[in-house]
């Protein structure tokens, strides 16, 4: 039987190279794989392109990765946060690039990338600066902007439960971008609160099938959780 369990978060992220494109799950810090992100900081990979809904909160997780100077470019829908000034300060100094994508378009670009759809048309951003330089086509009397699917070298996501085959379930809204990012990356690395036996997850409740997962590491009691609670940041 294939066993995708890794012994540690350090081992899980060891293969991420400089210049890689990395999708990171989470909506704010809900569902964010913070321990994997901090292992990536310790691992040392830099010049990364990161795809995420936002640019992090507080001084942990994605905000810490950005603050460590490891990210060359962010592709996201919400680059500012009242809980973190790391990205805005770097951006104003010209030390990090930004590709701003409307949230629904971001989700669909990731989904399309995982589904093998190279591009699609959407009415979102028509007539705005975000449509500048992009193809615009009229379909049935309405204008649409051409957007391209997003893929990545790696995806770091957080699950509630995993088995050795890589089948995953999520905790409520912490599911967010995890399932589509798992499909859109060449290598998907999962931080799970609980790892169970191969028969420990009812097939009817599996959200992400193991075929989309390459590595799983159990983080049963996230050390960073207490820090986030002190900061008033939700981290289910």
Automatic annotation (TrEMBL):
Record Pfam families:
CoA_trans
The domain of life for this entry's organism is Bacteria
Q: Which residues form a coiled coil?
A: none
Q: Does the keyword Transferase apply?
A: yes
Q: Which UniProt keywords apply?
A: Transferase
Please give the SUPFAM superfamilies that the UniProt record associates with this protein: NagB/RpiA/CoA transferase-like
Whether Transmembrane helix counts among this entry's keywords is no
Q: Which InterPro entries match?
A: 3-oxoacid_CoA-transf_A, CoA_trans_fam_I, CoA_transf_BS, NagB/RpiA_transferase-like
Family per record: Belongs to the 3-oxoacid CoA-transferase subunit A family.
PANTHER family assigned: ACETATE COA-TRANSFERASE SUBUNIT ALPHA, KETOACID-COENZYME A TRANSFERASE
Q: Under which name does UniProt file this protein? A: 3-oxoadipate CoA-transferase subunit A
Species this chain originates from: Sneathiella chinensis
